Amino acid sequence: MTRILHILDHSLPLHSGYTFRTRAILRAQQALGWEVRGLTGQRHSASGPAVETVDGLTFFRTPLARRGGPPLVRELREVADLAHAMEGVIRSWRPDIIHAHSPVLNAMAAQRVARKHGIPMLYEIRAFWEDAAVSNGTAKEGGLQYRLTHWLETRAVKRADAVAVICEGLKGDLVTRGVDPAKIIVSPNGVDMDMFGDPVPPDAALRAKLGLEDAEVIGFIGSFYDYEGLDDLIAAMPMLVAARPKAKLLLVGGGPMEAALRTQAEGSSARDAICFVGRVPHEEVEQYYALTDILAYPRKAQRLTELVTPLKPLEAMAQGRLVAASSVGGHRELIEDGVTGTLFAPDDPAAIAGALAGMLADRAGWDARRATAKAFVKRERNWAVNVSRYQPVYHILLEKGVRPHRAD
C-alpha cells in the first residue's frame, strides 16, 4: 500500500480554505486505499499533542522552538526545524512519496530530506507566497522580499520531481519562468459532495433572528481580507437597495478588514440592510448558506486574484446557491457568465449593484442556473474525481524514484 506524507503549513483542527482543501485531498486518498499522514510546520498555531487525529486523519506536529530573529534568519530556522521533524517521521513511518504543499518553505525542507532518503517529491502550489504577502500587506510587489521569494519559488519548482497547481493561471505563470509544462499537473479546487452536496432547509428561527424575513439576501461567507473586495460590496448596497428595496447583505466570517468594514457599513445610507454575523462554527455554515439567495464574491483585480481560483464559489454552487463574482482570472476559471453564475467588473460598486439587481429580478431562471452549476461541480470539481489526477503522477514518481526500504 502506497504511503504518502503531506507536508503542510497548518491543518485541522484549524479552519481555513487551506485546511479544508487538505482534508478533502487526504480523505479522498484514503478512500482510494492509500495510507496518508500530514506533518505541519511551526505556523500551525493550534495547541495539541505531537501526533493528533482529527476527522479520521493523522497529523504529526513540528515542535515549536519559539526562536525569533530577523526575517530570513527566522524562515531558515523554520525550514531546519521542519526538516528535522520530517526526518523523525520518515524513520518511524517510511513514506513512499513526499507531497509538499505551499508555501515554499515547506518545499525547501521537503526537498532537502527527500533527496537524502531517495524519496520522490511532489510540490503543490496553492498560491505564490510572494503574491499572498503583497495581498496581506506584508510585502511590496517588486521589492527585495518579493523578488527573493519569487526566486526561491522558481528554484523549488525546478528542483521538484513533479509539480501540482490548483489552476491554469498558476501553471501559465510557471511556464513563463521556464518550467517544463509536462512537469506540471493541475489539481483544481473541489468540493466534498458528501459534505456540501445535500443542503439543509432554511431555519425560520435563524432567519427571523437576523431580520431577514421577506428579504432578498445577498451573502458572503468567508474571511474578510482586503483582496476580497467587501468594501466594494458594501459600497454597492445603497444602489442595490434603491433598485431592490428588499435586498439585504449578510456577512458571515471575520478577518483583518472586519473593523474597517463595520465602520464603513455603519456610515452607509443602507446600514439597516447590512448584517454582520461574525465567525460561526464550521458545522453551522450550511445554515447560513440556506438563508441566502445569491452568494457574492467581489474580489479586487490584482495578481493574486487573477492567478488563483478560490474555493468558496464552488461550495456555494454545491449548496444550490446562485453565484455572482468579479470577472478576475481566478473566477473566470470557475464561472461561466450567464450559465453557472454572473460575472461583473471588479473594483466597481455600480457594476456589482447592477449585476445583483438583474439577478434578483430574474427569478424565473434561478432553478435552471442552480441545477447547471451544481451539475458542473459534481461532474468536474468533486474531490472524489479530482484526487484521481494525482494517481498517474505518483505512479511515475515511484517508477523513477528510489523507494525507501521498509521492513513491513
UniProtKB/TrEMBL annotation:
<dbReference type="InterPro" id="IPR050194">
    <property type="entry name" value="Glycosyltransferase_grp1"/>
</dbReference>
<dbReference type="InterPro" id="IPR024004">
    <property type="entry name" value="PEP-CTERM/XrtA_GlycosylTrfase"/>
</dbReference>
<dbReference type="GO" id="GO:0016758">
    <property type="term" value="F:hexosyltransferase activity"/>
</dbReference>
<keyword id="KW-0808">Transferase</keyword>
<protein>
    <submittedName>
        <fullName>Glycosyltransferase, exosortase A system-associated</fullName>
    </submittedName>
</protein>
<feature type="domain" description="Glycosyltransferase subfamily 4-like N-terminal">
    <location>
        <begin position="17"/>
        <end position="190"/>
    </location>
</feature>
<dbReference type="InterPro" id="IPR028098">
    <property type="entry name" value="Glyco_trans_4-like_N"/>
</dbReference>
<dbReference type="Pfam" id="PF13579">
    <property type="entry name" value="Glyco_trans_4_4"/>
</dbReference>
<dbReference type="Pfam" id="PF13692">
    <property type="entry name" value="Glyco_trans_1_4"/>
</dbReference>
